Amino acid sequence: MPILRRRSLLAAAAALSAMPRAVRAATPLAAVAEKDAVVAFGHIGPVSDGGWTFTHHQALLAAKKAFPAAKFLEVESIPVSADATRTFRQFVENGANIVFVTSEYGDLLSSVADDATDTAFLECNGHRQSDNESSYYIQHWMVSYVLGVAAGRMSKTGRLGFVGSFPVAAVYGCANAFLLGARSVAPHATMQVILINSWFDPQASSQAASALIQNGVDLLYTHLDDASCLQVAEKNNVKCATWNTDERRLGPNAYVSSLLLDWNGFCVDQIGRRLKGQWTGGPITLLPMGHGTDRDAWGATVPPEVGREADAVRARIMGGWNPFAGEIRDAAGTVRVTRGQSMTPMALYEWNWPVEGVSGLRG
C-alpha cells in the first residue's frame, strides 16, 4: 500500500478546510442547491493516460459520489489554443457553477472567467487570481527530494537523467529537488535533462529516455503522463522514478517509486464550499506532502536500507524541516540562496533556474 493514506472524502475535505491558506477575497459566490449544481472538468490530456489526467478524472468520480444530485461535465484533450476558450465558454453556457481546469491555460481561461463572474474557476498550476478565479497545485518538490535521496544511494555512476515536458517551473522544481536530494547523500551526482515539448508523447519520451541511457545515465526521473520512460528503463536494466500513479507493473525491476497525486479531497472540498456559498477566489492553494501528494511504496528492487534512509528524510520534512536552505548555487555557480536563508513555498513553485549539477535547462 502506498504511504499516501486514502482517508475518507469527508475527512479529507475537513482536513483541507483546516489547512492554513492565504487570505481570500471577502465576498463568496452565492450558494447553489446540489440539484441545480453543474460541475465541469476540462483536461489537458486523455483520461486514459494513466497519469495526470487520469488522477483528475478520479477526482471527478469521487465528486460524483459526494454530490450525486449534481450534474457533471467533462472534456478531455483540450488544446492550448482558441479551442480552449471556446470549451470553457461552453461550460458556462451549459450552466457550470464551478469549473476545474486541470492544467494551466492562462489568458485562454481568464478571458472567460472575467465574463462569467458567477462561476468559480480553479486552474491547476495557474498564476492568476480574482474574485471568481483561483488556482491549486502540489508541493511536488518535497516528494522529489525524498525520491532523490533514494536515487543518490541507488545510482552506481551518479549520473541521473530527467525526461520533462517544457522549460516551466514544474520541470525546474522536479529536476532541481531530485538532484539536491541525491546530492545530500552523493555530493558529486549530476542531472541531465531532456525536454520533449509535450506532456503526453510516448514515442518522444521513449526516445529521450533511450538517449539519456546511451549517454551513461543509470537512473531516470520523469513527470510525464505516460510510462514510456519506465518501460525503456526496464529494457535497459536501469532504474526509474515516475509521477502520477503506481506504474510498477510496467517495469517491476526498474521501478523506484512514483510521486503520487490525489486531488479527490481538494476537489470535493471546493465543490462543497461552492454549493454552501463559502467559495471565494484568491491565492493559490499548494497541497503539501502527505495530503494531495506523496511517494508510492518503494519498488521491489529498492534496498530496504535505502528506503528507510529516504523515509527518515520524509519524516523530517513532515515535521517541518525545509531541505531547500542555503547555500544553493545555480548551474553557473552563482549563489542563489545564501546560508541562513530558505526557499519559500512560492519561490519553489515559481523556480525558474537550474541548480548546480543540472544540465539541459537554461539558467
TrEMBL record:
Residues 1-25 form the signal peptide. Keywords: Signal. PROSITE patterns: TAT. InterPro entries: ABC-Purine-Binding (IPR052910), PnrA-like (IPR003760), TAT_signal (IPR006311). It comes from the Bacteria. The keyword Signal applies. Residues 39-282 form the ABC transporter substrate-binding protein PnrA-like domain. This is BMP family ABC transporter substrate-binding protein. It comes from Rhizosaccharibacter radicis.
